[in-house]
Amino acid sequence: MTQMDAPRVQTGAGDPPVERAPVIEMRDISITFGSVQALSEVSVRLYAGEVHALMGENGAGKSTLIKALTGVYSIDSGVVLVGGEKHSFSSPLAAQAAGISTVYQEVNLVPNLTVAENMLLGREPRRFGAVHVREMNRRARETLHGLGVDIDPGSLLGEHPIAIQQLVAIARAVDVDARVLILDEPTSSLDADEVQKLFEVMRRLRGQGVAIVFVSHFLDQVYEIADRMTILRNGRLVGERMVAGTPQLELVKLMIGRELETLERLDRSQSSSAGASSTPVLKALGISRKGSLEVTDLELYEGEVVGLAGLLGSGRTELARLLFGADTVDSGDVTIRGERRRLRSPRHAIDRKISFSSEDRKSEGLVEDLTVADNMLLALQASRGWLRPIPQATRERLVEQYLKALDIRPADPTALMRNMSGGNQQKVLLARWLITEPDILILDEPTRGIDIGAKAQIQAKVAELAAQGISIVFISAELEEVLRLSDRLVVMRDRRKIDERPNHGVNVSDVLRIIAGESRSEREEAEGA
Amino acid sequence: MPENPTLVQRLLRHQLLWPVLALVALLVINVVATPTFLNIRMQDGHLYGNVVDIVRNSAPVMLVALGMTLVIATRGIDLSVGAIAAISAAVACTRIVGAGDEAALTTAVMACTYALIACIALGAWNGFLVSVLRIQPIIATLILMVAGRGISMAITDGQITTPNNGWFSDLASGFVLTLPLAFIIALVVFALTAVLTRRTALGMLIEAVGINPEASRLAGVRSRTITWTVYTFSGLCSGIAGLVIAANTNSVNANSLGLWIELDAILAVVIGGTSLAGGRFSLTGTFIGAIFIATLARTIPNIGIPSEVNYLFKAIVVIAVCLLQSSRARSVFRRHRSVTPGPAVPVAKGIAA
Questions:
Q1: Is B208 on the interface with A (CB under 8 A)?
Q2: Could you say which of A5, A128, B150, B300 is the most buried, measured as most Cβ atoms within 10 Å of its Cβ?
Q3: Which residue from A324, A369, A432 is facing B211, i.e. has the nearest CB?
């Protein structure tokens, strides 16, 4: 790759203070879990007074790297230098003592303690052996004030919105005199105003000389706040860049890992039959939900596969969940076959013949301690109600039919779901929805983490279902897969739809350009054509 | 020959193995203490003996535990069962006492019907709190656990009410087909529960909700209805139990009737192999668990445990059974054994000496 020859530091304007030594330098870090190489000779440098973005798709190794730095994971080879000296932290506590604090995506504070108690938990000021509440509140207020956050330190943490809780977590981290502050996806549940508030705090800390590691899937945010970035892919370092000197397209390319020039055009085997019917099966108009999706429209026609492309956190899953009623919309209308419907729950959606297979197979799909047969029949049985059990003969026929149609192995209806392989679990879940005979099938990452054979079978099934007239929303992080299957392509970014076009001659590099936000003019050309 | 190990293995892996073994062990202890313990004799067309007493005495706990099993399978718990039993008994007994013809069969039937309708309503109240208002089950049912005693006190005016109706007393002391009627009632409810859950889809949906509530919701399971149903059913079961208990003493003391029965019922469910974490449940396991609890109660006087320490003894037995059931505890035990295979015998001798 490019890590050897790339001029990592001296790129463009605003060079990092190279004359100074980095606060933290991780050099050639490797970590293996069992037989999996999670990190392979990754190096990162953090300087005082910079916001450093750690970029990469899911599984690139960002979290592993953070955990290696903070002493959660032990390092197989490589060194960590803190202020030029070799260090190895045996625990997160040791890392914290050295001035490295982490604020995780989920705020791990105690909601039913006060703000001040949370900030000073474990190091409360004491008087006569008891906690000195007034002193504690004073110190908390002072720290919060320094960050420009004006809330009552005596109020319960749980009463505040997530954004404020996040700031309290940061205040807690800063209060231990952090030299390095790691923010892991801090903006994932914040709205635009709250993000600005957070950035304000980050700028303040940067001004005070703190080195901030910023992990986010939102490219715009990275370009707004970060100074430099380190890009990882599949556990390897693929680049270290100044943010200002790096076009977004180049960043996306590095993250996803393809040279645009060498990308082949992928043919779509399906010929498009979409657009034949005039009224859409489903039409979502201006749907949105605070903290998950900005106002978005989507139309879905009979027998059509709509592919949702976008990076993680782009809003692709969030849109799917809203269409299924798994989350409820804050605004907007959903029209199904011309009738306006409010999807209040998955049950409503299922009654309207909409199905949704979640990306999170384990916690939102499988019922692990039930059998394969029960898992397959769960949705159908649920819609019949408990008083009308599926007759034994029908059960056997359906289970038999789908074990065969989807080539599920072992073809044992009485096997427990937990004992099946990932690919076969996914097929059982697909069967669960096909048995309900849906009109609309939303598949979120149906092929993630399963073997090639099962993947190809699921893709073939999707094409077959569309040919039978089912409308399909297909979501996958793999753009080739989305392009291979889709009639129409919807590109998401930063929680909104940014592009939509028929999948005629679109290739992966086009999609990457759209995701990188560089193709406004090209897009108009394409639409004109 | 090759079938033998698989049969043994299947037996060893069977989820009812440990409850059954525990029950057998308890019976063996009793027989050692009293060789005639298992004797049963026929008198006036009825069966008599310790075993018959045990199955009769197991009826109230069994009834409560059947409802409790379903509640626990949905990851819930019902602490109000004892209070509901007391209300049931209070309603039935006051209606009998207040009726024109106190001894008539119709009086007894009507009284019991009123009582059970009240209990269904109370169970539905619990279900409402848990499924609609989403109050944690332990808190939601704690409300009725406390308030229910007050309600039953109010119904009986705080008096110990003694109905005078032979039909009603027969609920506990009567015999049908040589067996105690109370046990027959429990058996019938057991069979009906089994049919209700395993012949309909209720059992599977309860388990799905208990194992993975979010996946069930996304699959369209109406978990609210399911939850509501099981709490209502638990109320009904507790009500029947209350009638049997009141019939047994032919009186209702609103303060003490069914006191602590929720603990025995929860124990019966746990001993029967249903996890408090929800999910897969075993009604047969609960059945055996309830018999075990009743046998234990009989064992304590039989082997001469002083009454001062009988709760302690009970606690020790329950801990032992729970440890046996815990696969983790078993594996720890097994590891210790396999680490010291050689000296195991001499050490044991040393301890014995």
A1: yes
A2: B300
A3: A369
Per DSSP, chain A holds a count of helices (H) and strands (E) of: 18, 22
CA distances from B286 to A112, B20, B61, B193, B271 (A): 38, 11, 10, 12, 7
Least confident of A16-25, A267-276, B173-182, B313-322: A267-276
Q: Is the pLDDT of residue B341 over 60?
A: no
- Residue A268: half-sphere exposure toward Cβ, Cα within 13 Å: 24
**Complex ipTM > 0.85:** no
The answer on pLDDT for B250 being more than 60 is yes
DSSP H stretches of helix in A278-371? 316-324, 346-351, 361-364
A386 in reach of chain B (CB within 8 A):
yes
For B220, name the nearest residue in chain A, comparing CA atoms only: A347
| Banded model confidence at residue A106, pLDDT cuts 50, 70, 90 | low
What confidence tier does A260 reach under pLDDT thresholds 50, 70, 90? very low
What average pLDDT score do residues B67-87 get?
96
Q: Do A381 and B201 touch (CB under 8 A)?
A: yes
Question: What is each CA distance from A320 to A79, A314, A469, A486, A507, in whole angstroms?
Answer: 43, 12, 20, 16, 23
* The predicted structure's pLDDT at residue A74: 85
Mutate to test the interface with A, among B132, B200, B204, B226 (most CBs of A within 10 A): B204
CATH number at B71 reads 1.10.3470
Strands A488-493 and A305-309: parallel
Please list every residue in chain B whose beta carbon sits closer than 8 Å to the beta carbon of residue A385: 201, 222
Contact B204 A381 (CB under 8 A): yes
Contact flag A358-B201 (C-beta cutoff 8 Å): no
Domain A1-99+223-259 part of CATH 3.40.50.2000: no
pTM of this structure: 0.71
One-letter amino acid of A2: T
pLDDT at A16: 53
Q: Which residues of B touch A387 (CB under 8 A)?
A: 200-202
Q: How many domains does chain B have?
A: 1
What top-level class would CATH report for the domain A282-528?
alpha beta
- Structural domain that includes position B66: 46-326
The nearest CA of chain A is from the CA of B280 a distance in Å of 7
Tell me, yes or no, whether B5 lies in a domain.
no
Phi first, then psi: give them for residue A236, nearest 5 degrees: -120, 155
- Report d(CA A224, CA A406) in Å as an integer: 47
With CB atoms and an 8 Å threshold, state whether A382 touches B218: no
- In this complex, the residue of B199, B200, B205 whose CB is nearest that of residue A382 is B205
- DSSP state string for B301-334: HHTT--GGGHHHHHHHHHHHHHHHH-HHHHHHHH
